[in-house]
Amino acid sequence: MASPLEYLKEERLKARLNRRDPEAFLEAHAWLAPKLYRHALLRLREKEAAEDVVQTAFLNAWEYLGDPEIKLTYVKAFFYRIVNNLIVDAIRGAVRERRAEEPVETLPVLTDSASRAVEEQFDLEQVLDELGEAKPFERDILMWRYLDGLSIKEISFLTEKTTNHIAVLIHRTLKALREKRTSA
Q1: Mind listing the domains of the chain with CATH numbers?
Q2: pLDDT 10s digits, 135-165
Q3: 0.85 exceeded by the pTM?
Q4: Pseudo-torsion of CA 65, 63, 66, 28, nearest 10°?
């Protein structure tokens, strides 16, 4: 969960983006590009494809935000939605290799407490393998929440589901993963 200071920073950034401030867009890029890259890399498992997706996402966002009628509600969810759409396009467009050139262990270390808690319980490689067996929607929800650090509200906005639905889905999916681990 974001601290009040982080929340305030994001709200100010959102207001500046809604005013079409180019400096705010550069701040958003510096803040979100590493997170979006990590997300794309985990999904695509190809370094170059992940880089292309993130670059294209920021270009698309810049063009989209050029419309004065557009007002952002959630900054992170907006960028993650663009990246997810591009990931789907990339997967549909070509057959991808199963392993990335860069091993999963060398990905940037996450700092938020929720991610640390998940990492302490599970080995990241094993979790990714187990998540691969989960339904795609459930896998995406858990990745957004614990690997990408999105709030339940942001995931709700991104998926167009209620916050209650997302919270229950996270709880049930984690419970199923725990039960699977203990029975194995």
Answers
A1: 1-108 (1.10.1740), 110-184 (1.10.10.10)
A2: 888 888 888 888 788 889 989 888 889 999 9
A3: no
A4: 40
